DNA sequence: CATTGACTTAGAGTGAACTTTAAGGTTTAT
DNA sequence: ATAAACCTTAAAGTTCACTCTAAGTCAATG
């Protein structure tokens, strides 16, 4: 069992964000200590890892909440979850390819600017010497 | 010269967004017709392409506005712009690598679910036959 | 020359994902 | 036993990047 503080350290999320995720039903079933403090189980930690994974590949919190709700319903939702992951995977791949194309453009622009910068610096030097 | 409508069609941005970008100083110097309508030049279109490129690789509008402001100041800012592009390029590469790692995790999860789904379906079939 | 549709502005509203605040209760170390 | 640190909740506030609204102007067509 982990306190919210330990979970923050492990995941990089803030306590505020963890509480927010609970409220938004991403991980709604976190246990409580006698004093009412959150206690995260190893299963919770695994779920959180999945949540971070989906979030960091651009899935919206709403969709993640849907996915986690399906997971809580058990094996009868395996197919639905498979389909979600497949679609998500495809959209991530597409976005990465798009990013790569845009990045190539940034690289070309950078190379162009670098050349112009060298020219400009030589020009400045020759102006100084005259 | 292009009307805002034509620019929308070429860039995929809405007229609202183009006006918003003007207000936010991403492309603040768009000309006007006698009647006050926006007229985008070929140079404006090139700048817009750069804006989209930076935006689609995750640069904030604020940073893009800074970059475009430097560009308007001329060659004396070449070095500053080079540095911005270099930094941006590096951060995009990092993000893409991170994305790839997360995507691999999604793929592994998907494969795991697929296997479990096949098992589950066979189980259901044998329950039906009994 | 009137109507339709696209354009103008300033400013308010939206949705996502937090982030902060206020007011208080709990744990831990001394 | 008490102070400091940490936790609780509900609700309001923030930031980003739009997106929409209202009230009016302009251009093209029959």
Features:
homodimer, 130 residues, mainly alpha, Multidrug-efflux Transporter Regulator, Chain: A, Domain 2, two-stranded antiparallel sheet, DNA-binding
List the helices and strands and how they pair.
2 copies of one chain form a homodimer.
Chain A: H1 4-11, H2 15-23, E1 31-32, E2 38-39, H3 42-56, H4 61-73, H5 78-129
Antiparallel strand pairs in A: 1-2
Chain A binds a DNA duplex (30 and 30 nucleotides) through residues 3-5, 14-17, 19-20, 24, 33-38, 60-62.
Task: Summarize the structure in words.
Two copies of one chain form a homodimer. Chain A is mostly helical and 130 residues long. Chain A folds into two domains: 1-73, Multidrug-efflux Transporter Regulator, Chain: A, Domain 2 (Orthogonal Bundle), CATH 1.10.1660.10; 89-130. Chain A has five helices and two strands. Chain A has helices at residues 4-11, 15-23, 42-56, 61-73, 78-129, and strands spanning 31-32, 38-39. The first copy, chain A, has a two-stranded antiparallel ribbon. In chain A, strand 1 (31-32) and strand 2 form a beta hairpin. Chain A starts with a helix and ends with a helix. The model of chain A has no long low-confidence stretch (mean pLDDT 96). The interface between A and B is medium-sized, with 32 and 32 residues. Chain A binds a DNA duplex (30 and 30 nucleotides) through residues 3-5, 14-17, 19-20, 24, 33-38, 60-62.
């Amino acid at each position: 069992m982990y306190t919210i503080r330990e979970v923050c350290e492990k995941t990089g999320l803030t306590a505020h964000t963890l509480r927010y995720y609970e409220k938004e039903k991403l991980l709604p079933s976190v246990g409580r200590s006698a004093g009412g403090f959150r206690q995260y189980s190893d299963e919770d930690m695994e779920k959180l890892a999945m949540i971070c994974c989906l979030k960091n590949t651009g899935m919206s919190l709403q969709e993640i909440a849907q996915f986690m709700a399906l997971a809580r319903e058990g094996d009868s939702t395996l197919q639905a979850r498979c389909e979600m992951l497949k679609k998500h995977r495809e959209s991530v791949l597409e976005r990465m390819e798009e990013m790569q194309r845009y990045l190539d453009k940034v690289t070309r622009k950078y190379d162009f600017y670098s050349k112009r910068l060298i020219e400009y610096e030589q020009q400045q030097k020759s102006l100084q010497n005259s």
